[in-house]
Amino acid sequence: MFFDFNSKKPALFLAPMADVTNPAFRHVAHICGADFTYTEMIHSDGFNHDDPYAKNRGFSIGGVPYGIQIVGNDAESIAKTAAGLEGLFSPAAKVIDINMGCPSPPITKTGCGAALMAQDFGTANHPANIVRRVCETAELPVTAKIRIYKDHEKTLRLAKSLEDAGAAAVTVHGRTRGQMYSGNADWKIIAEIKKELSVPVILNGDIVDEKSLQTAMDLTNCDGYMIGRAAIGNPNLFRELKFYLETGEPEIVSVPDEFEIRGADLNQYFENLKRYNLLPHVNVRAHAQWFTKGLPYSREMRLKINDFHKEIKIRHLSDDELSAERESLTVEILNVFDEYAEKCRREFVF
Ligand SMILES: Cc1cc2nc3c(=O)[nH]c(=O)nc-3n(C[C@H](O)[C@H](O)[C@H](O)COP(=O)(O)O)c2cc1C
């Protein structure tokens, strides 16, 4: 098994997220308490044509165990990518996850992501046959991340077919492809899938805090709970949820302390980006904006961060110049966090 579900029940997973779960961010989430993390989706066509994307984004800092996610439209090319990636990133990489749920049109238009779920049962590129093919060639265990159909019977049949094909676990985002990210995730169908399968089932969709985690746990008894959007800019959510799982109580953190924790996590994130040469690949400004989410003065902070180095046209810079530019931006951004953390200490009286 790629993860010891028995010793860490329930386990908290960081969802694969394009432009978010780069190695630097995954490492911070791991420090905060995420039990397992995944790369951003790595496109099989790109990888098979020597696109350096995977090399830049697919590794793990400090050898922390993690999963590699592949997106593609064809069993053979996904299998080839899986073989190449495990060669590059084992032993830290523990599992190959296949993206069968991304609804974004640039992805589905080429038959990838959620478009795979539109393939007929029995065809070569039906999700089950992709899993079967990758299991035949990969050394690492293979898992699938799916969405649901409107038809619950069909969803159950799909999940079962993935298990029968050899999937080591199935992650279910409880929304249909058509829903994109709107409406609520349907956890009831995930509860049915959990009852039906013998392999671990990981629930995904709408876990945002202690209450939603507890409700999902009570309803589904899943093996893992995967968190996406709520962790963007807030890896500390894993710390809070771990505290809750250990004590049964939400952690009470004062606003100034929350500010400082967020600033420290951002600092660690920037350090990782610098140390592992990731600055040319990450939009530091946008990521810093996410870290202000939910904090007092967040609007003021975002406006300030927006104004830094506005005049610089980054598309004319080499990677080295871009790194230097972004490194100086990180210093200014951290100063803003310090300034407002201090203001918060002065103005929030308890
Ligand atoms: C910015 C962003 C990027 C995403 N990229 C991926 C991806 O690369 N692979 C994938 O399987 N899902 C991707 N997703 C979907 C998430 O993994 C997750 O399924 C979805 O956000 C629902 O979980 P949540 O309600 O906890 O956010 C992405 C979502 C967001 C918001």
UniProtKB/TrEMBL annotation:
Cofactor or coenzyme needed: FMN
Alphabetized GO MF terms: oxidoreductase activity
EC number: 1.3.1.-
Keywords assigned by UniProt, alphabetized: Flavoprotein, FMN, Oxidoreductase, tRNA processing
Family matches, as Pfam families: Dus (PF01207)
Enzyme class: oxidoreductase
Stretches assigned to the DUS-like FMN-binding domain: 14-314
SUPFAM superfamilies (UniProt xref): FMN-linked oxidoreductases (SSF51395)
InterPro entries registered for this protein in UniProt: Aldolase_TIM, DUS-like_FMN-bd, DUS_fam, tRNA_hU_synthase_CS
Matching CDD domains: DUS_like_FMN
Source species, domain of life: Archaea
Gene3D superfamilies, alphabetized: Aldolase class I (3.20.20.70)
Name of the molecule in the record: tRNA-dihydrouridine synthase B
Gene source species: Methanimicrococcus hacksteinii
